[in-house]
Design goal:
Elements: E1 8-12, H1 17-28, E2 32-37, H2 40-50, E3 54-58, H3 64-77, E4 83-86, H4 102-130, E5 133-138, H5 151-171, E6 176-183, H6 191-195, H7 201-208, H8 219-230, E7 241-244
Parallel strand pairs: 1-2, 1-4, 2-3, 4-5, 5-6, 6-7
Length: about 250
């Protein structure tokens, strides 16, 4: 039997990168997946490729009404979700902290942190009714071992990592598990922002030099971790910050 057979999941930022990888693997493992993404065209393309088990909605995760609409669309299309992956995220360009303007700071925290507040308010009542659920927040190694140049992004991911543990402690009695996945940098659409320079073999080499396994993360790496945390195989796992980092945070 597939590990997510008959499960229903919501994946934010599911139109590309880690989110697309998670959505694809979840469908392969038997789930029906609501793909929520600001880029509706990309979300629709992924959903069309995955077939009837996937459905796309346009969603700005920093807006409460968009998040509520996405949850409502999931319930209408597939039924009540048991799994929620808060994957949507953004960053600022790698640069000195004083060079990041207030609007950029607000956008990073609204997308990376406030989005989880919105999703929690929208979905936890549904999970409580079922007496079960798995919420997976995509944090980052940046929130575990921060480095200069991405200070405000690092802070946002530190918040994601910590709030995941606090949510786990509070929601455990309701049967709801909450965990964070902390990937090291991957070759996603944000790579040049993280690097602070043009993407090149030399720039990537500077990153991989600090990763014992010698490469960046991939969508499949993150998806496999999400699959474990979403499935019954991790039924007694909650409140963890799981590095998917090739040893970067050792």
């Amino acid at each position: 039997m597939k590990s997510l057979q008959n499960k229903i999941a919501i994946v934010t930022g599911g139109g590309a990168g880690f989110g697309e990888g998670i959505a694809r693997l979840f469908v392969e493992e038997g789930a029906r997946v609501l793909i929520a993404d600001l880029d509706f065209d990309r979300a629709k393309a992924v959903a069309a490729n995955l077939g009837a088990a996937a459905h796309a909605v346009k969603c700005d995760v920093s807006r409460a009404q968009d998040v509520q609409a996405a949850v409502d669309a999931c319930v209408q299309q597939f039924g009540a979700p048991q799994i929620v992956v808060n994957n949507a995220g953004t960053t600022h360009r790698n640069q000195p902290m004083l060079d990041v303007d207030e609007a950029t700071f607000d956008r990073v925290f609204n997308v990376n942190v406030k989005s989880i507040y919105h999703m929690t308010r929208a979905v936890v009542p549904i999970l409580r009714q079922q007496g079960q659920g798995s919420i997976i927040n995509i944090g980052s190694t940046a929130g575990l071992r921060p480095r200069p140049g991405l200070t405000w992004y690092n802070a946002s991911k530190g918040a994601v990592n910590l709030l995941s543990k606090s949510m786990a402690a509070e929601l455990g009695p309701d049967g709801i598990r909450v965990n964070a996945i902390c990937p090291v940098m991957g070759a996603t659409g944000l790579i040049e922002q993280f690097l602070g320079t043009a993407d090149s073999p030399e720039a990537r080499a500077r990153i991989t030099a600090g990763i014992p396994l010698g490469r960046m993360s991939t969508p499949n790496d993150v998806a496999q971790a999400a699959l474990y945390l979403a499935s019954d195989a991790s039924a007694f796992i909650t409140g963890v910050e799981l590095p998917v980092d090739g040893g970067r945070t050792i």
